[in-house]
């Protein structure tokens, strides 16, 4: 016979040890739920649930993949080649010579691309080196294939060279301004033939210095019994050097004349 009252058993209070054991699973479940709520993950970015803490978090790497390059690399080629070999007809396998030819073709194309990149880099280095060397011409005078030169108070004279096909006894020299008007005319001896030096002192027909500006040297002489215009080259003062591009090279900036490629310079004279 049991001495325990069923009513008392149903309404009896649990012991202390039993209370702890029964509450512990509930606490663990609550802690687990709180941890899950505290740390939420969306894709590759995790949040703490606190706006302030989320705002000071370091940015994480984006999970969005970068767009694929349209350029076929060596790894892509070998991947395609391996796929081709795996999908080939076992009764008609790829010929060894054909496979070697494909590999050789890709290697050739890849080598040409690398060679082009190296040539571009070499052109850049040569352009910079050329500009550095051309900087030594600043302050000097260079002979250019143009009959026009600049006259100023600092440099009132204009020098040049007349090219003659043969010896000419008398060469007529005409000085014209930028409007084509005659400023002065005189003659020089051309009996030596070849390249004949010509110089103008910057004085007009009245003996007065002309205003600063651009002036042209025109020359003519009798060749085979007929009067012909003779080509004239003038000296210009180099004021600065521009770097230019790989196709143009260094550019010499001339006083009052403009720029000219360094490759077009005919001669260099002392200032």
Summarize the structure in short.
With about 270 residues, the protein is an alpha+beta fold. The chain is about 30% helix and about 35% strand.
What is the strand tally?
Answer: 14
Quaternary structure state of the chains depicted: single chain
| Tertiary shape | elongated
The whole-number mean of residue pLDDT values reads 75
Radius of gyration over alpha carbons?
45 Å
Largest sheet: 7 strands, antiparallel
Structural class: alpha+beta
Strand content: 25-35%
Features:
alpha+beta, 7-stranded antiparallel β-sheet, 33% strand, elongated, disordered N terminus
Describe this structure in words.
With 271 residues, the protein is α+β, with helices and mostly antiparallel strands. Helix content is 32%, strand content 33%. It has helices spanning 6-11, 16-38, 51-55, 74-86, 96-134, and strands at 40-42, 45-47, 141-144, 148-151, 158-164, 168-176, 182-190, 194-200, 213-223, 226-230, 232-245, 249-254, 258-261, 267-269. Strand 12 (249-254) and strand 13 form a beta hairpin. The model is unreliable at 1-44 (pLDDT under 50).
């Amino acid at each position: 016979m049991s001495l325990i009252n069923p009513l008392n058993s149903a309404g009896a209070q649990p012991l202390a040890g039993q209370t702890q054991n029964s509450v512990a699973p509930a606490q663990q479940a609550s802690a687990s739920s709180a941890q899950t709520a505290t740390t939420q993950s969306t894709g590759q970015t995790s949040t703490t649930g606190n706006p302030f803490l989320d705002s000071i978090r370091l940015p994480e790497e984006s999970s969005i993949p970068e767009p694929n390059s349209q350029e076929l690399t060596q790894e892509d080629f070998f991947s395609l080649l391996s796929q081709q070999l795996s999908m080939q007809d076992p009764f008609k396998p790829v010929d060894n010579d054909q496979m070697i030819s494909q590999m050789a073709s890709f290697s050739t194309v890849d080598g040409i691309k690398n060679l082009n990149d190296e040539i571009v880099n070499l052109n850049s280095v040569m352009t910079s080196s050329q500009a550095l060397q051309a900087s030594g011409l600043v302050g000097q005078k260079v002979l250019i294939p143009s009959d026009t030169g600049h006259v100023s108070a600092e440099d009132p004279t204009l020098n040049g060279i007349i090219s003659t096909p043969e010896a000419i006894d008398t060469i007529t020299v005409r000085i014209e301004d930028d409007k084509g008007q005659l400023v002065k005319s005189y003659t020089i001896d051309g009996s030596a033939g070849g390249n004949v030096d010509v110089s103008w002192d910057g004085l007009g027909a009245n003996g007065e210095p002309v205003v600063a500006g651009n002036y042209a040297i025109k020359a003519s002489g009798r060749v085979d019994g007929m009067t012909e215009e003779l080509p004239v080259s003038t000296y210009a003062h180099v004021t600065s050097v521009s770097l230019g591009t790989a196709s143009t090279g260094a550019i010499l900036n001339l006083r009052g004349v403009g720029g000219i490629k360094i490759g077009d310079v005919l001669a260099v004279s002392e200032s």
